[in-house]
Amino acid sequence: MTKPAQVADTAGSSGLSAAPDASLVLRKKELIDLVVERCPVKKRDAKPAIEAALAVLGEALSKGREVNIPPLGKIKVKRSKRVGNAQISTLHLRQADRPTATADDPLAQTEE
Q1: Burial per residue of 37-56, b for 16 or more beta-carbon CB atoms within 10 angstroms, e otherwise
Q2: Are the beta carbons of 44 and 33 closer than 8 angstroms?
Q3: In 3-state terms, what secondary structure has residue 1?
Q4: How far is Cα of residue 107 from the mean position of the Cα atoms in its chain?
Q5: How, if at all, do strands 73-83 and 86-94 pair?
Q6: What angle do CA 9, 82, 10 make, to 5 degrees?
Q7: Nearest to 76 by CA among 87, 65, 60
Q8: For residue 71, is the peptide bond before it cis, meaning its omega torsion is within 30 degrees of 0?
Q9: pLDDT digits (tens, 9 = 90+) for 16-70
Q10: Secondary structure (DSSP) of 31-42
Q11: What is the pTM of this model?
């Protein structure tokens, strides 16, 4: 069983949030690059699909919907409030210890 990567304490002793280490942030460009590395698709084909999926996830979470997408996990909105022109949400993410592909998963790859 692999342990999750440790995340540095960015709050410091003052308890105020500080900017996270840039190496710990997964940005959209890197996500697209990582997906293209794992799939036999071209970047120009993957990018619109990934952007659409992210938009759908963002819309669902902003409406307070629960998202359950293995192996990502189950995401619940615990609290949400409007601040200026943004919505701030506190999310709860529950992930399985080891993501596994099931026979019911149409996207599961078979081992050859």
Answers
A1: eeeeeeeeebbeebeeeeee
A2: no
A3: coil
A4: 18
A5: antiparallel
A6: 5
A7: 65
A8: yes
A9: 556 778 789 999 999 999 999 999 999 999 999 999 999 999 999 999 999 999 9
A10: HHHHHHHHSSS-
A11: 0.65
> Edge-to-edge strands of the sheet including 67-69?
67-69, 73-83, 86-94
Determine the 3-state secondary structure of 43 from DSSP: helix
Position 2, amino acid: T
| Structure tokens belonging to residue 31 | 């996500």
CA distances from 44 to 26, 35, 51, 95 (A): 20, 12, 11, 30
Q: 62 and 44 in contact (C-beta within 8 Å)?
A: no
DSSP secondary structure code for residue 109 in this structure = P
- The sign one gets for the Cα dihedral 12, 72, 91, 58 is positive
Please state at what angle helix 28-38 crosses helix 43-62, rounded to 10 degrees. Answer: 130
Quickly tell me which residue has 């026979």 as its tokens. 103
- Assess contact for 72 and 95: CB atoms under 8 A: yes
